[in-house]
Amino acid sequence: MKKRIPIIIDTDPGVDDFFCIAIGCAFSELFDLRAITTIGGNNLTDVTTRNALDILKLLHREDVPVARGADSYLTNGFDEPVARFHGANGLGNVEIPHSDRMIDPLPAWDKIYEQAKLFPGKLIIVTVGPETNLALAFNRYPDLKQLIAKIVVMGGSLDKGNVTEYGEANIWHDAEAAKIVFASGVPIDMVGLNVTRTAPLKQSIFEGINDPVREDVKDVIRKLIDFRNGEAMHDAIAISSLVSDDVMIWKDAYTYVVDGDVYNRGQTVADYDAEIKNSRVAVGIHLDAYYQIMKDMISSYSK
Ligand code: RIB
Ligand code: CA
User: Which of the ligands is closest to the CA of residue 164?
Assistant: First the structure.
């Protein structure tokens, strides 16, 4: 049996984050999901942490620790959560049973370091929220960059942003953190809006699934898809690139993050001709491969 990949999902659940976590939990023969670390962004960290605990309860994966992250960005406070994208409760106003489990005693940045030391050169971080926790971990532990194998980022864009003309939410919210992460020297797989926008998720994803999927999971998935009117689940697309090499079309680049209080804050600039490359950037997607992963994920939550 192939060795499982140790991963941490750093997330701000979050409607599309739900699908990223569901994939991370579903492919348990591929992923050794070591922890979920939480951050603000789609909602405050208290709410995203609550959501992470409840999602893992729903998915019957309360074996996965949840380590709570920062209560502000590196240099700014959190913005008011935008309920129209993720609902007042951060989960598309879909109510799921509450977990009474405690969070991990370690904060997110220490949990990342703990697991990186346990799996030196093997741990992969899937970051699908503002990259504050990872930046804090790099600042606190100078040797961390030698221990992490790769960082899969849902963030940035090779064309337009979604918060501003140039800024995609995860990068724009904490561009200072993203700059630290992209400059860390750890290989980055950046899955930006230029690709994720092209992969909407509609109720038709259930077509052809004959497994007896659990009604509670099916109901939540249907409601989340409805809440986002079939829009792309960006975070699910990012982690699907780790499930199979057949999903994403990559280009090697040196990718630079624009930080500071400038008009193009959060812009991710990919230089394909740079001598030193720090990243692969997604430039295309094989939709059939992605949708098959989503179908397999849904099927895995069968009775
Ligand atoms: O821009 C999309 C990203 O911002 C996704 O990760 C979504 O969950 C929000 O965090
Ligand atoms: Ca997210």
Answer: 1
* Cα distance between residue 216 and residue 58, in whole Å: 8
Q: Is the pLDDT of residue 1 over 80?
A: no
Do residues 199 and 282 make contact, with C-beta atoms less than 8 angstroms apart? no
Q: Pick from 224, 145, 129: which is nearest to 180 by CA?
A: 145
Place of tokens 């919210």: 173
Give the whole-angstrom CA distance, residue 293 versus residue 189.
Answer: 18
State in Å: Cα 86 to ligand 2 middle: 10
How far is the CA of 98 from the CAs of 27, 49, 53, 270, in angstroms?
A: 24, 12, 8, 42
Query: Is 234 labeled as catalytic in the residue annotation?
Result: yes
Domains of the chain: 5-300 (3.90.245.10)
CA separation, residue 231 to residues 19, 152, 199, 224 (Å): 13, 21, 8, 10
Q: Residue 129: in which H helix or E strand, if any?
A: none
Ligand nearest to the CA of 16: 1
* pLDDT tens, residue by residue, 159-200: 999 999 999 999 999 999 999 999 999 999 999 999 999 999
For residues 220 and 130, what is the distance between their CA atoms, to the nearest angstrom? 25
pTM of the model: 0.98
Say if residue 209 is exposed, middle or buried (CB neighbours under 10 Å; 0-12, 13-18, 19+).
Answer: middle
Comparing CA positions, the residue from 222, 276, 234 lying closest to residue 254 is 276
- Contact by Cβ (8 Å): 140, 116: no
